[in-house]
Design brief:
InterPro entries: Amidohydro-rel, DHOase/Allantoinase_Hydrolase, Metal-dep_hydrolase_composite, Metal_Hydrolase. Residues 52-429 form the Amidohydrolase-related domain. It comes from Psychroflexus planctonicus. This is Dihydroorotase. The protein is an alpha/beta fold. The chain has one domain (55-368): TIM Barrel (Alpha-Beta Barrel). It is built from 14 helices and 20 strands. The strands form 4 sheets. Strands 1, 2, 3, 4, 5, 15, 18, 19 and 20 form a 9-stranded mixed β-sheet that branches. Strands 9-10-11-12-13-14 form a 6-stranded parallel β-sheet. β6 (56-61), α1 (74-83) and β7 (86-91) form a beta-alpha-beta unit. The longest helix is centred in the middle third of the chain and has 18 residues, at 214-231. The two termini are 25 Å apart.
Amino acid sequence: MTIPILIKDAKIINEREIKQADILIENGKFVEIGQIKAKSHYNIINAKGKLALPGVIDAQVHFRDPGFTYKADIYTESKAAVTGGVTSFIDMPNTYPNVLSISILNEKYKIAAHKSLANFGFFLGINTENLDEVLQMDTSHLLAISDDGLYFTKKGNLLADRPDILEKIFEEKKDCIVAIHAEKEAIVEENERKFNTKYGEHVPVELHPKIRSVKACYSASKQAIDLAKKHQARLHILHLTTGKETELFSNQIALKDKKITTEVCVQNLWFSDKDYKQLGTRIKWNPAIKTEEDRQSLLKALINDKIDIITTDHAPHTLEEKEKTYFKSMSGAPMVQHGLNIMLELYKKNQISLEKIVEKMCHNPAILYKIDKRGFIKKGFFADLVLVDPTKHWTVHTNNLKYKCGWSPLEGTEFTTQLTHTIVNGNIVYQNGSYYEGIKGKALIKA
């Protein structure tokens, strides 16, 4: 039995409304929301002036564990996650060995059970090596199957480049989300050759969105969507980066009934191609950050529900790996600690509402991946909760980063909101710069 936690006088953002109320947490669950009388044995948190949000579910991260723990691991990155209000994460399959079997998947769950401060889930990878095995297995219990990141292992692992394989998966796998990285590798390679001929190894990073172009993204997404519609299959397009692609998605269907879904990463709502000049390869992602017009189109599509969820694609590398010439620089950057702050900053700039932020970062990931009893401040649900001081200013600096890689493309950025408490399964894990690490997170279970 844990000591009940009573959060007093919070401004609760939940289920498209904002209300002032108290929240009572007992035995890891929300048990009451309203005007609640305090008892002597309660742990009372005065939340007057603070925002109370459901814990963020970041449904696309790369925590590098196992295989690449020199730059990140589940302990360090989950610590960064809870610092940033992320109470649950879903990790991608491009660790080493690649997560291409149930035994490797189960091993990752075991690692996380010992190391993670946040709740955790994992995608099963799929490529030509394990295709037949995946097609024969029961995948109904999996959060998703995905090819994301596996193209780093070897060429030809992107499903977007293999419509024959993608169609076979859609024919057989009606019980599982297929989450794909949508870029046409052939188009990217053609662009790489063109710019390599002109510049050699020293291609200006500003050309990254020309190499990983709108055409490469749009043609891959459209082909995959057309195939999924043909077979009435369940498709999720990861990390959307172009305004043109948003035209391929619908807002006419409730999320729980959608067959075709997508997401946007916080960096694509924050940065644009104008930032390459200052930040260089530090903001080199695949797919690439594109134009200011794309940024605005993505935000518009998020607000009007063509884009379903917000993720970070948290992908830490060492600075040595990042600060190389164009072709040698690794793609990806650490973001999980700052994703919620970015979105709250956009709220402060009147670009998005608090209710919409909570819908896209908390509610919808739980709905999309059918995660049991999470993503909402609701009686009987797991007590995953974040408290935010909406008035406190602070600046991102190396001394307040929790990433193992020790850097961020946001260094020097001033935020005007600060997270004060993160509660995971009813346990205070983070509070005003202090961590309570005795109780680890739990595996995400499908409803």
